[in-house]
Each structure stands twice: as C-alpha cells, then as structure tokens.
C-alpha cells in the first residue's frame, strides 16, 4: 500500500513509541516526513530507520513553545511547498497518580501545556496552509484516559479529554475547508512512556496481567496504533471527521465487572 505518495506529513513525538512507528509507516507508504520531538537522540534513531529514499526534516521542538511551532511549520512549508497531514502525537504522562486533593497546579500546567495546548498550537499554525489548498488530515493522539478515569493521573486524563474535544471543535472549524480532524485513543501500549509499568510488571512476574482488562487479553504495539493513525490520515477515511477512535483491544468496550 502506498497511500501517501507526494504527500507531506508532520509528526510530533516522532522520536519514540507510537510517533516513531507512525512516521515509519507514513514514509513506507511514500510520504515526505517532518519529524519533531523534544529528544534529539530519539529523532536520530527514527531517521536511521526510515526507508533510504525518504525526504525528511527532523527538528528538536517543544510543542508547547509557540515560536518554535511557528518556525517548524514555516520551514516545512517552505521546503516541501505543502503540508497534507499533521499527526499531533507528542505527549507526557506525568508519571504518578495522586488524588485530586493532592494535585499540584504546576503539574497540571505542564501536562496540559504539552498534551493539549501543544496540539492546539500545531493545528493553529498548520491549518492555514491546509486551508489555502482546501485539503488536509489531522490526527491527534488522545487516550482511553480521556474517556474513562483510571488510566492516568488527573491532569493527564483531563488533557486527553481536552484533546478529544479539541478534535471535535477543530473538525467543525475546518470541515468547510475539506480538512478532517480525528483522534485515536490508545489503550496500554509498550513505549517509552509506559516503560516503568512494563519494567515493574516483568520484575514481579505480572506481565500477563497488563493486557488482562482488554477483551483481546493483551497490550498493544506501536505499529497497531500507527496503522489506525495512518488509516485516519488517509483517503480511506475520507468521510470520517470529528471522531475519537479507541484502539485499545476492547478495553473501553466493557465495564469489566468482577467475576
Ligand atoms: P513515548 O514517550 O515513547 O513518546 C512520546 C514522545 O513525545 C517522546 O519521544 C518525547 O520525547 C516526545 N515529547 C514529549 N514532550 C514533548 C514536547 N514538549 N515536545 C515535543 N516532543 C515531546 O510515548 P508514546 O506512548 O509513544 O506516546 C505517544 C502518545 O500516545 C502520547 O500523546 C501519549 O499520551 C499517547 N498514549 C500512549 C499510551 C501508551 O500506553 N503508550 C496510551 C494512551 C495514549
């Protein structure tokens, strides 16, 4: 399948996990890729795995820094002359899960700043280039944590619920320009973000429990998220916009009542 020939895709959080797998899939299907991440080492590792013929720009970026976002988007448009796809995937989890009575304002500001405001800033600066050409597809990485509690700390869950709502509002704002905006909601996937969870489970012989609350009885792989993200970014999803697709092995399909 080569769905993205001659298309230009920006991927944030491309230096690891789901973002890396998505960047590789887009490039394998013919896209020119603009890879952004806070981690330069991560970016270099992703670049080393790209098909050799891939046209690529890779840049260190903090998605919560509007000047940096503006500069990256301008550079991408000047170099490639168009932007067809935006994958808003950079994210941080914040790690711990204190109850709301122990939440720190600074943690909320940091997590909302990257996960939600960063996604908004990328859309704000990319969408005008798509509007000019009356075409584009944006896919945001939300989370099952944005649908139900229990899959992340309070600020992380709120940030991902915000990403789902941003997906809907941006789809309304941009639909008249033939720009589609969708989200995926991953369940548990083995990546840099979840490494502590997997390390703990393996050290305590509990790895088999990690997929236990999914109907498919296993956790997900970054490539499975990349497949769903690339579907939503492609013309195969040409009549889908404003939707948040759980890609979670059935985790949100069930109440998971005991017994
Ligand atoms: P990851 O940690 O492997 O990758 C996230 C990448 O984002 C890293 O390369 C990191 O350097 C980058 N990043 C972090 N802050 C950034 C910033 N301010 N600016 C630019 N880049 C930044 O984790 P992942 O699991 O691949 O996460 C990708 C997305 O998937 C995130 O939005 C995450 O919230 C979401 N998600 C992951 C899971 C899971 O189980 N792994 C579940 C639900 C949602």
From TrEMBL:
One Gene Ontology molecular-function label: oxidoreductase activity, acting on the CH-OH group of donors, NAD or NADP as acceptor
Gene3D superfamilies: NAD(P)-binding Rossmann-like Domain
GO terms for biological process, alphabetical: fatty acid elongation
PROSITE patterns named among the record's database cross-references: ADH_SHORT (PS00061)
Family: Belongs to the short-chain dehydrogenases/reductases (SDR) family.
Protein name: SDR family oxidoreductase
Organism of this sequence: Marinobacter adhaerens
